[in-house]
Amino acid sequence: MENTHPTSTQDNVYSGVYHTLVTGMYAATTCFVIGVALALLRPSTTFTVDAAHSFHFSAILPGILHADPIAFMALGTIITILTPIARVAVSLVAFILDRDHHFIWITLLVLLSAVVSLALGLLGFRT
Fold first, then answer.
1. Is the pTM of this model over 0.70?
2. Which sign, positive or negative, has the C-alpha torsion 93, 20, 89, 5?
3. What is the DSSP letter of 46?
């Protein structure tokens, strides 16, 4: 008879990944909803293609403090991008805690690849 009960590694990974993905989804959705609501409440808010190219990370916190809809939507976008990376990091921690060396190395390579890709994109390297 086959053991159908998940191991502690599976429990740790599934639970951690689930909570990370759900938290990221709720946080990003909340940011987008607030951004859209603020934009609808301020008919003078304009969205241009140029805004996407001129918006900088350093403008997000001050923009949120001033209820800028674009800042909320930018934060939602950043959370959406970072959630899968956080998911891999949570999986790595679970594998380390369970001393599952095979999956530690695989997950570490995936995390390193994602972080390097993100860093290169932020530095302006494009393919």
1. yes
2. positive
3. -
| C-alpha–C-alpha distance, residues 1 and 36, integer Å | 54
- Dist CA 45 CA 31 (whole Å): 17
Domain ranges of the chain: 8-122
* Burial zone of 71 (CB within 10 Å; 0-12 exposed, 13-18 middle, 19+ buried): buried
**Model pLDDT for residues 78-118, shown as the tens digit of each residue:** 999 999 999 999 999 988 888 889 999 999 999 999 999 88
CA distance 107 to 89: 8
Query: Which amino acid type is present at position 50?
Result: D
Question: What is the distance between the terminal CA atoms of the chain, rounded to a whole angstrom?
Answer: 51
Please give the distance of CA 78 from its chain centroid, rounded to a whole number: 6
Encoding tokens for residue 27?
């946080």
CA pair distance 102, 31, nearest whole angstrom:
37
What is the overall mean pLDDT for the chain?
A: 83
